[in-house]
Amino acid sequence: MQHVATEPASEGLSLAERAYRAIRDQLVMLEIRPGAPINEDQLAQSLGVGRTPVREALKRLQYERLITTYPRRGTFATEVNITDLAHISEVRLELEPLAAAQAARRATAADRANLTAVRGELESVDALRRDAGELMRLDLQVHRAIYAATHNPYLEDTLVRHDNLATRIWCLFVERMSDMAGHVEEHGPLIEAIVAGDPDKAARLARGHVEGFERAIREAI
After folding, report:
1. 73 partner at 20 to 30 Å CA-CA among 93, 99, 166, 209?
2. pLDDT tens digits, residue range 144-167?
3. What CA–CA distance (Å, rounded) separates 191 from 65?
């Protein structure tokens, strides 16, 4: 099953880009389980594309540490290692506040409209109605919208990759998380600060969100 509704519609994207986004999000959401073998033919068939776009996508995913290739053994989804949490958080603690502040400074009218729409989604969060997968896809959607609003492709690319890795850790421990809906709803004030053009408040809230994420994971281990 494919869930790639965490980014804008894929019209106009190349086959390789569409394959990349689809496979990436299956890996991030652990729909392709850690350690599972990656079969190019099966992926191509399930996505309705040829092997070449899939092969191009897999090259990118290896660089992003979502898949690993072993000589004579094949290609596999990367294992989720909890020891990576501190390293990932170290990067995100510096860059998430920067991204939030820059989004508050640079967001266009279209960015603000998109963020406001995502804010509406957050207001409808109901832990009883939404399963864990839906909540995490919404979390990805929020983060990716903020990164896009920075209008810094290097910062956006770096943070998308690290947020993907953090989400895989979250997915691994999701059953032990006590208040995941609350964690996702925390984005509301952050989005409001960005839309209001308040970079200092946005940066402060973003840092607190990353710290809360790491704390919640460690409590769940």
Report:
1. 166
2. 999 999 999 999 999 999 999 999
3. 29
Residue-wise over 48-66: b if at least 16 C-beta within 10 A, else e?
A: ebeeebbebbbebbeebeb
Mean pLDDT of all residues in 115-119: 94
For residue 158, count other CB atoms closer than 10 A to its CB.
Answer: 16
Question: Using CA atoms, how far apart are residues 36 and 155, in angstroms rounded to an integer?
Answer: 30
Q: For 50-132, where are the E strands, in sequence order?
A: 67-70, 74-77
What pTM was estimated for this model as a whole?
0.88
Two tokens, residue 36:
């599972």
Any bridge partners for residue 75, and if so which?
69
Distance CA 160, CA 151 (A): 13
In the chain, DSSP assigns E strands to: 67-70, 74-77
